[in-house]
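Record 1 of the preview.
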Amino acid sequence: MTDISTQSIVIDAPCEKVAEVICDFLRYPEWVSAVKSADVVEEYEDGYASQVRFVLDAGVVADEYTLSYDYADDLSRIEWHLVKPSKMQKSQAGSYDLADNGDGTSTVTYTLAVELSIGMLGMFKRKAEKMIMDSALKELKRRVESQASA
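->
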């Protein structure tokens, strides 16, 4: 069974700026420490990526996989799922939900469900998920806020 994890963070930028960074997949290697490459495989007619291939190397965890993306019309929700199983993952589904706080900041809620191909004790899996999500949200916040202040 796949567990679902959720975490949120407040980013000092409007939702549009946050969505812009999230949707700029080709630049992920510049700010997501574990992503070594990201390539847009397919696009929708509007130019947004529909499938993105990632090469991930986080030391003990290395993987290559393709995610399929869907977007809310206003980009308040960006969701994805694993196209096919990879070396490390049987499935992955996730989303970013962006909420305008009315004061120029945004709350980003990251939801992730991953089923691994390798066995891992529940306690270690939850700790790994928490670390992945903490890192992803902090790196997103740092990237968005550094661009907003530039």
